[in-house]
Design a protein that fits this description.
Strand order of the largest sheet: 1-3-2
Number of helices: 3
Radius of gyration: 11 Å
Number of strands: 3
Number of domains: 1
Distance between the termini: 39 Å
Largest sheet: 3 strands, antiparallel
Helix content: 40-55%
Shape: globular
Length: 58
């Protein structure tokens, strides 16, 4: 069975950013989150979408 999301620590590692950078993006609403079993998680699709939007266009 596939996970419905990954932890914020794992998300920061996936994006190769500091946790504080991830938290700022979450506060700005740039990455949607959801609650699962009392924990905040992010879908891999949301991370890939964020990563594509932040990629330099040159």
């Amino acid at each position: 069975m596939r996970k419905s999301g990954i932890s914020l620590v794992q998300a920061a590692k996936f994006l190769q950013v500091e946790q504080s950078t991830l938290y700022m993006a979450l506060q700005k609403g740039q990455i949607p989150t959801r609650r699962r079993n009392g924990r905040t998680v992010v879908s891999e699709g949301a991370l890939l979408d964020y990563q594509a939007r932040k990629r330099p266009l040159f």
